[in-house]
Amino acid sequence: MSSKITIIGAGSVGSTIAYTLSQRDIASQIVLIDINKEKVDGEVMDIEQGTCFRDPVSIIGGEYEDARESDIVIITSGVARKPGQSRIELTQTNVNILKQITPEIVKAAPNALYIIVSNPVDIMTYVFTKISGLPENQIIGSGTLLDTARLRCGLSEHFGVAQKNIHAYVFGEHGDSSFIPWTGAYISGAHIDEYYQTMKSLGADIEELDREAMTEYVHKSGGKIIANKGATFYAISAAVCKLCDTLVASSDSIATVSSMMHGEYGIDDVCLSTLTLVGPNGIRGKVPMRMSKEEIEKLRASAKVLKDVIAQIEL
After folding, report:
1. From 158, 174, 219, 262, active-site residue
2. Are residues 129 and 166 in the same domain?
3. How many whole angstroms separate alpha carbon 174 and alpha carbon 183?
4. Residue 234 DSSP class
5. pLDDT above 80 (res 83)
6. Which residue positions form the known binding site for beta-D-fructose 1,6-bisphosphate?
7. Among the listed residues 12, 10, 29, the one whose alpha carbon sits nearest the alpha carbon of residue 244
8. Which spans in the chain are helix H?
9. Distance between CA atoms of residues 94 and 78, nearest Å
10. Tens digits of per-residue pLDDT, 172-208?
């Protein structure tokens, strides 16, 4: 693998992504960039000293110019929400950081595929799309990849079946207005309701799925992890590295990533997550999924939440 991946931001998420990439065969070159040079040097040394158990990989702490010829750039920069700080205040702070980063990194790596991870990720993806000047296919927000992973984890535990057999998704924003389109939730080829009935007929000791409880599990997981350990970074790192794997693969895959909407489901000029065809050329387009009228309205409501925030920030 000869891919070069640059990560902007050496906080918990950025450094964990760098470490996870260093243990996989996705990249042969990893560049970590952060304003805190000492933190970068420490992370690089720590990660590099654990790579003797794999094929050689180059890991450096660099400047923006070191991102030249990157295949993928991952942006994780931003600050966490402080006590008493409103969501709008946090959003504007992180937007301002992104506005400083964008011209520097785009100048160095204009042909890279960009993965936006910084929160609020849908707003940040929208802002980057508007100010970067890059084609939209090169811009991919991590979106509800993590939410979808949390959903599949919860469904796997409930039904006692491998996560790889579960095809269910979280749509909308990466936030409280996200929702699960249960119309398209399947375990292998069977809808989850059919699967439940099949398992009951086979004598399985299994309870009927509480959809509201499962939605709450997805919504509250992040907050619970933060309350218990201070931050979330392992699962999002795994999700982003899987996305990197998709971007260097030989064919496209379908994922719930955030990208600009252009009239799909009656939604325009906002970034959020639906089924998206993504691969070595970035985003190829949206994949329509059959949804009920109620589910489409939930998606539109999620879009409105994001648009209301966008209307209050300074681009």
Report:
1. 174
2. no
3. 20
4. H
5. no
6. 152, 167
7. 29
8. 12-22, 37-48, 87-108, 121-132, 145-159, 192-201, 211-229, 234-247, 293-310
9. 5
10. 999 999 999 999 999 999 999 999 999 999 998 899 9
**Residue 49: CB atoms within 10 Å:** 9
Q: Are 188 and 198 in contact (CB under 8 A)?
A: no
Position 313: which residue type? I
Tokens 């064919």 belong to which residue?
A: 251
Is 262 an annotated catalytic residue?
A: no
Radius of gyration, alpha carbons of the chain: 20
Can you give the CATH number for the domain in which 167 is found?
3.90.110.10
Residue 55 and residue 82 in one domain: yes
Q: Which residues are annotated as a binding site for substrate?
A: 81, 87, 119-122, 147-150, 232
**What distance in Å separates the CA atoms of residue 39 and residue 295, rounded to the nearest whole number?**
44
Pair (78, 137) in one structural domain: yes
- 252 and 272 in a single domain? The answer is yes
**Residue 53 identity:** F
Indicate whether 218 and 159 sit together in one domain: yes
- State the residue range of the domain holding 101: 4-141
